[in-house]
Structure formats: structure tokens, C-alpha cells
Write a structure and sequence with these properties.
CATH topology: Glycerol-3-phosphate (1)-acyltransferase
Strand content: 15-25%
Structural class: alpha/beta
CATH superfamily: Glycerol-3-phosphate (1)-acyltransferase
Number of strands: 7
Number of helices: 6
CATH class: Alpha Beta
Distance between the termini: 46 Å
Radius of gyration: 16 Å
Number of domains: 1
Shape: globular
Order of helices and strands: HEEHEHEHEHEEH
Largest sheet: 7 strands, mixed
Length: 207
């Protein structure tokens, strides 16, 4: 398992670089305001459709959530893109003994109110045209490994070109009020309701 490492210089450089390429490669990057509880960690659940996703949400955390950023990535990705660990990435390897270690590690991160943990519940890349977002069972293990004192934030990230040469990005955010006990199916259903509503709002955008 690859865990995050601290290097202030590397972190600052890539933080600057990510903001720079987002500004240069997209026409605009927008998001809506939501309620955020400063005294609780954030479990950020998001759809996963592009190479950009982790960087976009890293940038969103930098300018909006302002928490210590962590993201679960596949072991192969962590080994190939070595700088990710300096941006808060930790790895997971499917069908390996370290799988449980990675899920429990993510759960413990949520016990620190200063942290944000980004999880792509689909577990891998899917088309941006997916009608619904699937949830891997590991999400349940992460929640169970925590003290369940964190807050759920849903993000549905959507793109469109409209009349521009570069695409625009909109992150539709929702602070989901969880009950004391929530099954994976309940969380999945709540997220997909948000995802469907985000797509509806996106299709109603006029230029």
C-alpha cells in the first residue's frame, strides 16, 4: 500500500501547476455553495469519468473545502504517477491482502476533522454518459472503519462545450444529511438521486 508523503515543495509546485492547467484547458470551472461543517471531516463521493477527476476535485478542495486532501487511487496508478502521494493519494489493490488495510486507512482518515477523503465509488473509469453510478462494496468498509463522525458530500462533475472551443466544468455539490445507520444501498440511492438531478439541471442550462 502506498501512503501519502509530505514534501512541501513538491506539494506547492503541483498545487500551482494543477490550478494552472485547469485554467488553461477549460473555459470555466464552476460549483455551487453548500453547507460545510468545519468541525467534521468530509467523505467526498464523486463520479469518475476522466483523467482530470482527481485534479479537478483537488483544486476544488484547495479553493473551497480547504481541508487536508486525500484520495484513493489504484495501486498501478500510484506506482506509475509517483508525485500523487505528495498530493494526498493512497493506494488500493483489488484482490490483494492489502485491500482491507487501504479501506481501514481511509476510514481512520475520516476521524480527523481536518481531512477530506475523496472516493470514486465506481472503483474505475466509466463513461460520462452513464445513467447511474455504481458503488463498490469497499465504501461500506470505509464507513465501518471510521467513528462515523464525518459529513457526506456528493459531487457530480459534468462537462459541456456549448459554443466555446474549450469545455466548461460544473461540480454539482450536495451536503447529504446521513442518519445514524445507512446501508450502502441507501447511500447509493441518495447519490444517484443527486446525480440525476445534476444531469437534469445541466441539460436546462442555456448559453
Amino acid at each position: 500500500m502506498v501512503k501519502p508523503q509530505s514534501n512541501k515543495i513538491i506539494h506547492q509546485f503541483f498545487s500551482w501547476y494543477i490550478s494552472r492547467i485547469i485554467k488553461s484547458d477549460f473555459d470555466r470551472f464552476e460549483y455551487n455553495d453548500i453547507k460545510i461543517e468545519d468541525n467534521k471531516a468530509i467523505l467526498l463521493l464523486a463520479n469518475h469519468f476522466s483523467w482530470w477527476d482527481g485534479f479537478l476535485l483537488f483544486h476544488l478542495n484547495k479553493i473551497y473545502f480547504k481541508k487536508h486532501f486525500h484520495v484513493m487511487v489504484l495501486q498501478d496508478t500510484a506506482e506509475k504517477v509517483k508525485f500523487l502521494k505528495y498530493l494526498g493519494a493512497f493506494s488500493i489493490q483489488k484482490n490483494a491482502k492489502s485491500l482491507v488495510e487501504s479501506l481501514d486507512y481511509a476510514g481512520k482518515l475520516l476521524d480527523n476533522p481536518a481531512n477530506l477523503v475523496l472516493i470514486f465509488p465506481q472503483g474505475e473509469l466509466y463513461s460520462s454518459h452513464s445513467a447511474a453510478i455504481q458503488f463498490e462494496k469497499g465504501v461500506s468498509r470505509i464507513i465501518a472503519a471510521s467513528k462515523k463522525q464525518f459529513q457526506y458530500i456528493f459531487a457530480a462533475v459534468l462537462t459541456d462545450y456549448f459554443d466555446r472551443r474549450k469545455p466548461s466544468i460544473k461540480a454539482y455539490l450536495e451536503h447529504w444529511e446521513a442518519k445514524e445507520y445507512n446501508s450502502l444501498q441507501v447511500i447509493k440511492s441518495a447519490y444517484n438521486k443527486h446525480y440525476e438531478q445534476a444531469i437534469k439541471q445541466q441539460t436546462e442550462v442555456s448559453v
